[in-house]
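RING-type domain-containing protein
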Amino acid sequence: MSILLPEDPQSGSPWFIGLLKIFNRQYPIRCNTSKDALEFQCDQSLINLVHNACSTSSDLVSDLIQQRMSQYSNHDNLAEFLVEIQDIMERIVGCGPNISDNRAISVDKYPSKKYYECIIKEIGSIGWDHVEELDPSLARLRLRILDERGRNHVFSVRLEPDYPVSAPECLVDIPDEFQLSWSTKSTLHHIVQQCISAISQFDNFWCVLEDIDKFCHVIEPENPTRSSKSRRVAMEDHCSVLININPSAPFRFPECRFIGPESAVMPLMERLMLKSSDWDERLLPRENLEAILNLKLPAKKVQGEDTEFLLECGICYAPEHDGVVADRICDNVRCGRPFHNSCLIEWLKAIPNSRQSFQTVFGSCPYCSTQITAAL
């Protein structure tokens, strides 16, 4: 640990001596706390350590330490001074060669005692039960709130050293960009209130997606976030439908993309387009799709129960390739193997009996030999 003691207690000398701990190593230090002759001396090995880690002028480091000393010239505050100097030194040494020559070290980047008192007080005002995670520096925190339906929402806040002068950075898991309104009089309480207001705007959006998650076999995303706008839902005959919900108007006719064998997908697409005028915004999108397509979307399979739906590409055996799902499905309903279009192109080009016409490659399914095509 770091320690600082009077050099000559009996004479009342302003000089103090001690040890400064930097990353588990202690360095001898000596400082004069007299307001008229502030001075900080340290072991040469510590000077070399700072010099090697930081190419910034050593005078800037000295000025920084002297300025902090002026705020702690009262002997009662020397313990706080020692803690702050230790923090400053560890930050400088920890940065290493990443600090450039033209980057001055400013005292503004180190929060004051008032900063910590302010943050602790504001956290107390919103309630410590809302704190999910708190960084030891109090510069980053994750807060938790419940909406009106009991959903758990966690958002992160990053505070600047001059808080509340500079606006914090706030990340909220919602399907739209969160815009924080801020002034120098704002507090953490205002952040929480704005997050609650933003979250409440998407209540219907999440209700729609929760209905799909509850009653359908959702293939992806496997672990959706609050900002996820789409669901890929399994259907019969190796088909699936990718449903994109509009966060601003979740009950409107959504963008739907059917994935599967062409012989099974085309009738579904035609039926949806022909009866799109029957869409009733008083019903949930899932209910509308089932009514218009005249089918029941399969429920999620019970864990351990066999499922005929395949996600992995039959060539590379991965569900995704360069962010693209395996959406090229063999037209043979008995096969129904999915492929990435790019994987299928490479496979077909390597087969002697495949042929190319314009922007399409023709060949056979690697599993059942049914004719299959891939668009270039």
